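Journal club prep — side note

Before the paper discussion, L.F. wants everyone to see what a predicted structure for a comparable chain looks like in token form. Sequence:
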Amino acid sequence: MGTLRSVLIPVGFVVLGAVAWYLMAPLFHTETVVPLVKETTRADYEPLMPMKIGEIEVQASIADSPEERQLGLSGTTMLPSDVVKLFVFDGENKWSFWMKDMLYSIDIIWVNSDGEVVSIKESVAPETFPESFTPTDPAKYVIETEAGFSRQYGIVPGTKITLPDGI
């Protein structure tokens, strides 16, 4: 009887452990689930307001609340070539940006309260997350454009921008 007990008790623990593992395994499943992404359209950026970066006319989607600034372009699938995201802050600071939940590369342009470009980071890729990008000088506005915009249109520090009316 002692031999049977010495065999059945360990076997019982093994069976109990296997059942517990089977029932709890889904709780520890670590496979990354990629969320379905809705294709972004121009309408997703509306309302749009006209502005100029240097002599280039673009349409700005404004992010002027903390929630809008935090979301930015995250989760969008594209940015039309003539549309930019304009981040408006209450004051000048060295505002840092990252590429959390971004699906495409962008240029990031920092602009001071005088409407002058103070810093540019070109073609920032989504894979750079969680790295943050910070301007060399304080800025009140940050503009996100499609990647290559700055190079294509010769936007450099010192370039003047014309803000949308009311901004």
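L.F.'s comment for the group: Residues 58 and 82 are 5 Å apart (CA to CA). Keep this in mind when we get to the figures.
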